């Protein structure tokens, strides 16, 4: 019997423009899941039709080659990271949700570090140790975490925006997720806390992004990693929604 035979996982992998990374990330994630829980797991690739690099077509081609993988297509008119996470969760077949990214920055071989905590926790949140991002992204992340923590009052979370986490679906709630941006990470934590979840934080490896494109950033002259104005506005709207809770 598998050491984690009682764990069933739906891994949700949102993708914008990740064509250079997707095949490698999918292979690594499959190997990690098969090693930890051979019996019951699936990978849901949520591919944005707003991508301009062929990511949706690549995702469908890869899914056709892997029996435990399927694709949910995200409308270009309802884009956003949070919306992608919501679509993946709504499509999930299994009770434990692994939420990760397709950018290759996380080491999915560390999945076991999260799974072992399911015996004592309902949400296992990774925190990047250390965070391997350019300084503008780190600065933006720190400011964002400070604002969100003060505005919404999420207590004692080291890395509010880390995208590598494992959560039981019972602590998401039945209501669809409301946030359409990366603020969805705060929303998931808020929902879990409200539902009495036991939360454990685990350090996870974080690698530099080598390729692909994030929707959140742009470049102005020689300065890279500048937040997109439209995304900043969308984040503020999501924060306003959470503030009303």
Major sheet characteristics:
7 strands, mixed
Global shape: globular
Structural class: alpha/beta
CATH superfamily: Spore Coat Polysaccharide Biosynthesis Protein SpsA, Chain A
**SSE order, as H and E?**
EHEHEHEHEHEHEEEH
Gross CATH architecture? Alpha-Beta Complex
State the CATH class. Alpha Beta
Total strands: 9
Termini separation comes to 44 Å
Strand % is 15-25%
Fill in the CATH topology.
Answer: Spore Coat Polysaccharide Biosynthesis Protein SpsA, Chain A
Mean of all residue-level pLDDT scores: 86
- Rg is 17 Å
**Estimated helix fraction:** 25-40%
Q: What is the helix tally?
A: 7
Give start-end ranges of low-pLDDT stretches: none
Number of domains: 1
Q: Within the largest sheet, what's the order of strands? A: 3-2-1-4-6-5-7
In short:
With 245 residues, this protein is an alpha/beta fold. Helix content is 35%, strand content 20%.
Task: Give structural notes.
This protein is α/β, with parallel strands linked by helices. It has a single domain (9-243), classed as Spore Coat Polysaccharide Biosynthesis Protein SpsA, Chain A (Alpha-Beta Complex), CATH 3.90.550.10. 35% of the residues lie in helices and 20% in strands. It has seven helices and nine strands. It has helices at residues 22-36, 55-65, 81-91, 111-115, 135-152, 184-194, 229-243; strands at 9-15, 41-48, 69-74, 96-99, 123-128, 165-168, 199-204, 217-220, 223-227. The strands form two sheets. It has a seven-stranded mixed β-sheet, sandwiched between helices. Strands 8-9 form a two-stranded antiparallel sheet. A hairpin with a 2-residue loop joins strand 8 (217-220) and strand 9 (223-227). The chain is globular and about 45 Å long. The protein starts with 8 loop residues before the first strand and ends with a helix. The mean pLDDT is 86.
């Amino acid at each position: 019997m598998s050491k984690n035979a009682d764990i069933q996982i739906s891994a949700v992998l949102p993708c914008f423009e990740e064509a250079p990374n997707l095949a490698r990330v999918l292979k690594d994630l499959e190997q990690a899941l098969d090693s930890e829980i051979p019996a019951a797991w699936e990978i849901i690739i949520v591919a944005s039709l707003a991508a301009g690099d062929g990511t949706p077509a690549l995702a469908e081609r890869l899914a056709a080659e892997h029996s435990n993988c399927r694709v949910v297509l995200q409308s270009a008119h309802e884009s956003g990271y949070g919306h992608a996470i919501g679509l993946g969760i709504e499509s999930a077949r299994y009770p434990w949700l692994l939420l990760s990214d397709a950018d290759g920055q996380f080491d999915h071989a560390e999945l076991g570090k999260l799974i072992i905590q399911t015996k004592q926790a309902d949400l296992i949140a990774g925190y990047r140790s250390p965070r391997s991002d350019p300084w503008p992204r780190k600065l933006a992340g720190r400011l964002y975490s400070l604002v969100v923590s003060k505005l919404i009052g999420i207590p004692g979370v080291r890395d509010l925006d880390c995208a590598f986490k494992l959560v039981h679906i019972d602590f998401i709630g039945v209501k669809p997720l409301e946030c359409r941006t990366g603020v969805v990470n705060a929303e998931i934590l808020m929902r879990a806390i409200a539902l009495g979840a036991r939360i454990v934080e685990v350090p996870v490896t974080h690698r530099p992004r080598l390729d692909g494109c994030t929707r959140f950033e742009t470049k102005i002259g020689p300065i890279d990693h500048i937040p997109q104005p439209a995304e900043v506005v969308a984040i503020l709207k999501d924060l306003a929604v959470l503030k009303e809770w």
